[in-house]
Specification:
Alpha-Beta Plaits; 13 helices; binds manganese (II) ion
Length: about 550
């Protein structure tokens, strides 16, 4: 038996070598459960292939066997080409929690570099002539396997040749001649993660997996929403694109974000003048929409968008419009809600690209309300939301008291939440969570938070839902934590004079008695973004679990 194999089977268990090589205070890789659990009982075995740019690019080919991921480093990567044999080096077993690890291992640490989940799926030991137990097959140096992945499919063979001078076992990986074989197939032609859609470069630029050492190992490596991650990088509108809008007359075709968009009624006033400015025309509104779309995209991508339309402008009543109209251009991204009841809206706009927001803006959607769940898991919220809703008698100072109590409560709980002004009269707090809890669970949690805070200042808060019964007191509204209920998106305009926007703020800004909930509008928020950056970004990055109340 070669040295590596012996070391893997010390009394410290199969992951001893894996752990010995890594400093878990520095790397975001999972440490793995204390005692790996085989736990199959007929469940299909999983495999993962990670594309890992360490000192040298390689692919890590990992098979679930006996409660760990048996692992081979394949420098040139697996292929479907049956005429090619790839060298593969048997390396230390990895914990099962490594299965969906995607992120950056810090430079200087073991394996420092970027990792994507290049392929994953299930596998079975190939029956023909194989011993029934894969662990035994690996130890005997020959494993025949049938992969069902997204990229890799069909019958493969791993066979040991000899130990190389470094002591690593050298193996060969090859694909058999079967119906999945493809001559000339090169893994480098398929560079994106099957989990997030991102390339190694994109993961390196913005790692989207956060390691939470306070959580159990099987829960600690928390991914960010894949579509949001994949599409963060929309380029801003160019000066030429924005200038082209000004050159149009009352209507025309606007080339923007790679699309040709028909825009209409450009000189129509959509927002009456605010206290400090002129009326806002549709042209102004579309210009703002183009400026803000790349910033807003990560909050909208992969989510159904409920449009609050005001075709006659903010001075006239608006209405909810959820169904994507059949006249929308074919390129407009959309999603069919599989749970839609007969007669309900079924096909929703999904702003997966910046031009889609401009289409909605031209359609008269002055306010943008994205779902708090993602289309791939519409019943799993990604935020818990608090809406601090002032009553007629609530002063701004009192509203700030309520907002600050939320800050204190969240700090006490160790939970990250971010405030934003509604652009109307209130303040909201968005609390990002890893998908898992149902809407009723996030609603119950938020209600507990609200009731706890309300008990501190009972003179400020009413629990009556009818406005008329509230005696002018504020409401802490947790009821928006529900399927297909929404709060206005960050940076969305509000249908009010002067085109105020729902602007994210720093918690400290809520100490400022001169702040107003409609302090920012489509004119000054762009400058604010240039100065402060996007203050709401932590709700995309800090994915967490809601702790129990004690
Ligand atoms: Mn590796």
């Amino acid at each position: 038996m070669v040295p590596t194999a012996r070391r893997r089977r010390t009394s410290e268990g199969p992951l001893a070598l894996y752990r010995e090589k890594r400093d878990f205070s520095k790397t975001s890789e999972p440490e793995g459960a204390a005692r790996p659990v085989p736990g199959h009982d007929g469940a299909p075995r999983r495999f993962v292939v990670q594309r890992h740019r360490a000192r040298r690019l390689h692919y890590d080919f990992r098979l679930e066997i006996d409660g760990v991921l048996a692992s081979w480093a394949v420098p040139k990567g697996p292929t479907l080409d049956p005429s090619v044999r790839r060298a593969a080096f048997h390396v230390e077993d990895h914990p099962l929690e490594y299965f969906d690890f995607e992120g950056v291992i810090p430079a200087g640490e073991y394996g420092g570099g970027d990792v994507i989940v290049w392929d994953l799926g299930t596998w079975e030991a190939d029956e023909a002539g194989e011993p029934p137990d894969p662990g035994t097959a690996v130890r005997s140096g020959e494993l025949h396997l049938d992969l069902q992945g997204q990229k890799l499919r069909g019958r493969f063979v791993l066979v040991r040749t000899r130990p190389d001078p470094s002591g690593k076992e050298q193996w060969l990986l090859l694909h058999k001649h079967d119906e999945y074989a493809v001559d000339g197939w090169d893994p480098e032609d398929h560079p994106r993660s099957v989990l997030s859609g991102r390339t190694n470069d994109e993961v390196r630029a913005e790692p989207h997996r956060v390691w939470h050492s306070d959580l159990p190992p099987d829960k600690a490596s928390v991914p960010l929403p894949p579509a949001a991650a994949a599409k963060v990088a929309a380029a801003p509108a160019t000066a030429d694109e924005l200038g082209a809008l000004d050159l149009l007359g009352h209507e025309g075709i606007w080339a923007i974000f790679g699309r040709e968009l028909k825009v209409t009624n450009l000189n129509k006033v959509l927002f009456p003048p605010g206290p400090d400015g002129a009326a806002v025309t549709k042209r102004d509104f579309l210009r703002y929409s183009a400026q803000i779309a790349p910033v807003l995209l990560p909050y909208l991508a992969g989510r159904a968008l409920n449009m609050h339309r005001y075709p006659d402008g903010a001075g006239s009543p608006g209405f909810w419009h959820k169904e994507l109209p059949t006249h929308a251009p074919d390129w407009v991204p959309r999603w069919d809600n599989p749970d839609a009841a007969p007669g309900d809206s079924r096909t929703y706009l999904v702003v997966d690209e910046p031009a889609a927001l401009l289409w909605a803006a031209n359609f008269g959607a002055l306010e943008w309300h994205a779902w708090t769940s993602r289309t791939e898991q519409p019943n799993l919220p990604t935020y818990a939301l608090v809406d601090v809703d002032p009553g007629d008698n609530t002063s701004w100072a009192e509203l700030l008291v309520l907002a600050r109590l939320h800050r204190a409560a969240l700090e006490h709980l160790g939970v990250e939440g971010r405030p934003k002004l509604t652009g109307r009269r209130g303040v909201q707090v968005w609390i990002p969570i890893a998908p898992g809890p149902s809407f009723s669970e996030t609603r119950a949690w938020t209600e507990q938070l609200s009731r706890t805070i309300g008990a501190v200042v009972p003179q400020l808060v009413s629990w009556k839902w009818q406005v008329g019964e509230r005696s002018g007191l504020a409401r802490l509204d947790y009821t928006q934590n529900a399927h297909n209920k929404t709060l206005v998106a960050p940076y969305s305009p509000r249908a009010a004079p002067g085109a105020p926007v729902s602007a994210p703020v720093e918690w400290d800004e809520l100490d400022d008695p001169d702040l107003r909930p409609d302090a920012f509008n489509i004119h000054n928020v762009i400058e604010r973004l240039a100065q402060k950056g996007d203050l709401f970004r932590p709700v995309l990055q800090a994915v967490q679990r809601l702790p129990p109340f004690r």
